UniProtKB/TrEMBL annotation, chain B:
InterPro entries, A to Z: Amidase, Amidase_CS, Amidase_dom, AS_sf, GatA
Pfam families: Amidase
Listed GO CC annotations: glutamyl-tRNA(Gln) amidotransferase complex
Functional note: Allows the formation of correctly charged Gln-tRNA(Gln) through the transamidation of misacylated Glu-tRNA(Gln) in organisms which lack glutaminyl-tRNA synthetase. The reaction takes place in the presence of glutamine and ATP through an activated gamma-phospho-Glu-tRNA(Gln).
Protein name listed in UniProt: Glutamyl-tRNA(Gln) amidotransferase subunit A
PROSITE patterns: AMIDASES (PS00571)
């Protein structure tokens, strides 16, 4: 079953799922490029995969367990140094709920 | 000083005999980088201070005569995190990111005395085959500065090929160590999935990613892998199999070696001159005692499509962590939390990264999961079975690394389908998690051609043996780019 190319609207919907926003010209070129990639992907339909088990990892390692030990890495200050915005030992972010909307 | 004519054994002997102190070696390495790298732009960050401090401490303690990497400078791809040293993955997203720990592979090499001298340019988040998707700079091919260096570990390959460092670390998700090694005429090893810990390697496609090693010679590569590999409690996919002494097992006699040559790797789309060069190299293996048969890996042509679905799906998941909150780029104009996520990601990621996140997000979405993600994972199984059939009868697979030699900048960026086909010969190995190494097989129009040696899982020793025998017979590593040195 061939995958139809996505419309610009569908491309924008995927972008929204991925927490991306596309500029108009970006959305147009993305639509075109994804269509080309879909052409490539459609070749997989030629392969008979009836009854074939999917492989999600090539590793033969399974279910590795270790002791559940808490470690204090003493790295909080160094970690916080990478935060884009801080207030004391806290990472600052904009409001999650727009208070204006409830009024 | 440069490293065109000094291998690790020579350097080690000089350090042990105190003909050279570690500080002198590191200073000369840094001076050379300062002198010539503006021409190649392999380095994003040079680690002057930490490298010199480590060198002085080692001189004080004394170079370990039993440790070949003791005091040896090297370069690190910029998607391997380094404590206190800027680590960008060549992305605007991480342009100001300073990690708080060393990747296990970096820590392992440090334990063996190796000294990181800088962080190397790459395609953004390792997505690309030319290093052109880097947010920062355009790295030039060592042999011709008008050509791409390959990618994504382009900086790593060029730093080694231009003699700036004796070895470098890269990562290989779909060919990112082997293809730039091929384009720059050096040795690039992608070990078996799980052979080297990936703790601290910025994740791209987690069922594919593997740290790899780039060197001028096979023996140097063997030494570095032995130090880099091993189980790590921090990476549950890392293998606990013992790490062999690869360098001690090298041989120049290939009697009894059974070589398989897959016809699909010499098909349309693979440059005729590249084919001829690799075939001549295979004849050289026969002269050294190997027997050769043509075999088939029938699902090879589906590798690119299946890979781009699977690796992009994994990337779309892995890259969710970049949200502008705890570290990395945050858009300055974002007013709400949602805007922080969306604006930071949209401004922080480049076009190729966005394209793969989009493809991955779509492939994993409810309506397309079966037709895309599951189908690709089933094709992956068939590709693994192709390899298993061949390795039941043969010791090694030999093929070209890339369908062409290094090409001009700006060639394929508009058509992802064409660009992605450049990886057609390296991707199958990552699909199956196998080890593979690219080694210089000769030149076409003055540009190096890579020969790819593919082994069964954990058969790195075989790849080194074959590569070493070929290298000793041809001495191609003695040819130096530019010939001016």
């Amino acid at each position: 079953m061939a995958q139809e190319p996505l419309s610009k609207t569908e491309v924008e919907a995927v972008a929204s799922l991925a927490k991306l926003t596309l500029q108009p010209e970006e959305a147009a070129s993305m639509t075109e490029q994804l269509a080309k990639i879909f052409d490539l992907v459609n070749t997989l339909a030629e392969v008979d995969t009836t009854g074939v088990k999917p492989t999600y990892s090539p590793s033969d390692v399974q279910n590795v367990l270790r002791a559940d030990v808490a470690v204090d890495a003493q790295q909080a200050t160094a970690l916080l140094a990478n935060a884009p915005e801080r207030e004391g030992d806290l990472i600052k972010v904009p409001a999650i709920i727009d208070e204006g909307a409830d009024k | 000083m440069n490293f065109f004519k000094t291998d690790l054994e020579t350097l080690h002997a000089q350090l042990v005999a105190k003909e050279l102190t570690v500080e002198e070696l590191v200073t000369a390495t840094l001076d050379n980088i300062a002198k010539i790298d503006s021409k190649y732009q392999a380095f994003i960050t040079v680690m002057d201070e930490s490298a010199l401090a480590q060198a002085r401490a080692l001189d004080e303690r004394g170079v370990d005569p039993d440790e070949i990497l003791s005091g040896i400078p090297y370069g690190i791809k910029d998607n391997l995190v380094t404590k206190g040293v800027l680590t960008t993955a060549a992305s605007r997203m991480l342009a100001n990111f300073v990690p708080i720990y060393d990747a296990t592979v970096v820590a392992n090499l440090k334990k063996h005395g190796a000294i990181g001298v800088g962080k190397l340019n790459m395609d953004e988040f390792a997505m690309g085959s030319t290093t052109e998707t880097s947010y920062f700079q355009e790295t030039k091919n060592a042999w011709d500065q008008t050509k791409v260096p390959g990618g994504s570990s382009g900086g790593s390959a060029v730093a080694v090929a231009t003699g700036q460092v004796p070895f470098a670390l890269g990562t290989d998700t779909g060919g990112s160590v082997r293809q730039p090694a091929a384009f720059n005429g050096i040795v690039g090893m992608k070990p078996t999935y799980g052979r080297i810990s990936r703790f601290g390697a910025i994740a791209f496609g987690s069922s594919f990613d593997q740290v790899g090693i780039l060197t001028r010679t096979v023996k140097d590569n063997a030494y570095v892998l032995a130090a880099a590999a091993g189980h790590d409690d921090q990476d549950q996919t890392s293998s606990d199999r013992p790490v062999p002494d690869y360098a001690a097992q090298l041989t120049t006699d290939l009697s009894g070696l059974k070589v398989a040559v897959p016809s699909e790797y010499f098909g349309a789309g693979v440059d005729k001159n590249v084919q001829a060069t690799v075939k001549a190299a295979i004849n050289q293996l026969v002269k050294l005692g190997a027997s050769v048969d043509t075999v088939s890996l029938p699902h090879t042509k589906y590798g690119v499509a299946a890979y781009y679905i699977l690796a992009s799906s994994e990337a779309s998941s892995n890259l969710q962590r970049f949200d502008g909150i705890r570290y990395g780029y945050r858009a300055s104009d974002a007013k709400t939390l949602e805007e922080v996520y969306v604006q930071s990601r949209s401004q922080g990621f480049g076009p190729e990264v966005k394209r793969r996140i989009m493809l991955g997000t779509y492939s994993l979405s409810a309506g397309s999961y079966d037709a895309f993600f599951k189908k690709a994972a089933q094709v992956r199984t068939l590709m693994i079975e192709d390899f298993q059939r061949v390795f039941a009868d043969y010791d090694i697979i030999v093929a070209p690394t890339a369908p062409n030699v290094a090409y001009d900048f700006g060639q394929n960026t508009d058509d992802p389908e064409v660009t992605y086909m450049n990886d057609a010969l390296t991707i199958p190995v990552n699909m199956a998690g196998l080890p593979a190494m690219s080694i210089n097989a000769g030149f076409v129009n003055g540009l190096p051609v890579g020969m790819q040696l593919i082994g069964a899982a954990f058969a790195e020793a075989t790849l080194y043996q074959v590569g070493y025998a070929f290298e000793q017979a041809t001495k191609l590593y003695e040819q130096i780019p530019g010939g001016e040195h």
